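Researcher: Next sequence.
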Amino acid sequence: MKKIILIGILLPFMAFSQTENKIEGLTIDTPCELEYTRNLGNQNNYSCVFQDNNENIFQYSATVQNLFEDMKGLTDNSLQVFKDQFFKTARENAQSNGEKTENIVLANGQKALKIESYLTYADQKFANTSILFLYKQKSFIVNLTTNELKKSYNLTDRIKIK
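Model: Next structure:
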């Protein structure tokens, strides 16, 4: 009987425990382990899907693109121009698709772009939040797609850069 009670107490905590996923120089806290899914050229992709007890679906993903060749040989001034243009282009592309954009700052002071959009698949409506930033000659896009539309899941707080 004690085992059943103990499992009943611990199960909710175990079901929503967080995994610290270490990916290419940063850590992302998610309730599931981000697994390497594919490599397209110089772009690596990681993802995981989690479903809670209320049948809400949460898909976390990260796309990392190596920009070493693009940034090689840039001076401080030209590097800043590259970064500014990178974010400007990302913002313009998102806004042209009707997505909401916002300049944000991550916990370590890193500048980032937050993009919010909605998609429909079959009869399900999903909210997608993307955080885009540059770090160590790489671009990172961290996404959370969910059909839980009533809560705000602060994806920004899940990203930790050393």
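Model: Residues 76-96 form the longest helix (21 residues). The domain at 2-161 is CATH 3.40.1000 (Protein Transport Mog1p; Chain A).
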